[in-house]
Amino acid sequence: MYDKNNLARLIISCPDKKGIVAAVSGLLYKNNANITESAQHSTPGEKPQFFMRIVFEIQGLMDEKKGIRIKLEKDLKKLSKDINMSYGVSYLRKLKRMAILVSRMDHCLNELLWLWKSGDIEVEIPLICSNHEDLKELAEFYKIPYFYIPVKDGPLNAGEGLKRHERKLLSLLEKENIDFITLARYMRILSPGFLKSFNKKIINIHHSFLPSFPGAKPYEKAYEKGVKIIGATAHFVNDELDAGPIIEQDIIRIDHDDDIDEMKRKGKIIEKNVLSRAVKWFSEDRIIEKGNRTIVFT
Question: Tell me, what's the pLDDT at 154?
Fold first, then answer.
């Protein structure tokens, strides 16, 4: 087993050209790094892009007296200018801090908390927030603070950027230094003002195989269409409803005897699995966005 104090992840993206892997590997070698994982992807076309994820180990990486981390970051900054490279480096000793927003349905929340407790999803969960009180006991079972913030706002007034409950929520997120939000069937639309103010990643689970059946009541719409499969989609949230970059999807078959309730029962199975995979991959820095698409190093 590797010591997490000595481990880091490096994510890079840049215009594709010869020598990128050699340049990055050489930089890590000069910093006494041992590469433990590596994955890369190049896009086709006239302006190909290169993406890479590397996990590496450096003895004494987080020892501030040795200055190893500072030298590594200085070298990465210089290389990024030399080859026009965007990059992010994260240190495994520091777990991402995730807030979970949920309404009344418990299947996605249950799955996330069980995987978190078992160590399969390595994050910190400082809070769970809901517009209902139904799932408070579940949060208490896992000893996670639960905040009930009811939604009583009407439409936004002209020039009003945030709803009242969103201001309360933002205050909590800022206080707990949250790195990202997971919407585990949080049945409220977050305003553009909230997205702009939070300005970090939000992962949502939508109960259809997007782009089919966005918005409300997707199972009812799927039933009316007589579909033979239903799906679930985990995606990043942006200003457009259910249209952010897709992270993960899955499907399950529907029989002609299945009514809407049975479709919903089957759908819960894939919803919780799809969302959990997306959260795990994000927590492990396996996702890179490219426009409205994602590269996922699974």
Answer: 56
Average pLDDT, the chain: 95
At 162, the pLDDT band (50, 70, 90 cuts) reads confident
How far is Cα of residue 232 from the mean position of the Cα atoms in its chain?
15
3-state secondary structure of 232: strand
Q: Exactly one of 242, 255, 257, 259 is catalytic; name it.
A: 242
Pick the CATH number of 4-91 from 1.10.287.110, 1.20.120.1730, 2.40.160.20, 3.30.70.260: 3.30.70.260
- The dihedral of CA 208, 213, 215, 216: what is its sign? negative
Residue 36 · residue 55 · CB < 8 Å? yes
- Residue 106 is a catalytic residue: no
Q: What is the pLDDT of residues 101-156, one digit of tens each?
A: 999 999 999 999 999 999 999 999 999 999 999 999 999 999 999 999 998 765 54
Q: What is 177-212 written as a DSSP string? A: T--EEEESS--SPPPHHHHHHH-SEEEEEESS-TTS
Provide the token pair at 187: 């049945």
Reported in sequence order, the residue ranges of the chain that DSSP labels E, i.e. its strands, are: 7-15, 34-42, 49-57, 86-91, 97-102, 124-130, 146-148, 180-183, 201-206, 229-236, 246-253, 287-290, 293-296
> In this structure, what token pair is assigned to residue 26?
């050489």
Confidence of residue 164 (pLDDT cuts 50, 70, 90): confident
Are 295 and 287 in contact, with CB atoms under 8 Å apart?
yes
Closest CA to 250 of 213, 290, 210: 210
The strand order across the sheet containing 180-183 reads 146-148, 124-130, 97-102, 180-183, 201-206, 229-236, 246-253
Domain ranges of the chain: 4-91, 97-296
Nearest partner of 102 among 197, 205, 1, 4, judged by Cα: 205
CATH class of the domain at 97-296 = alpha beta
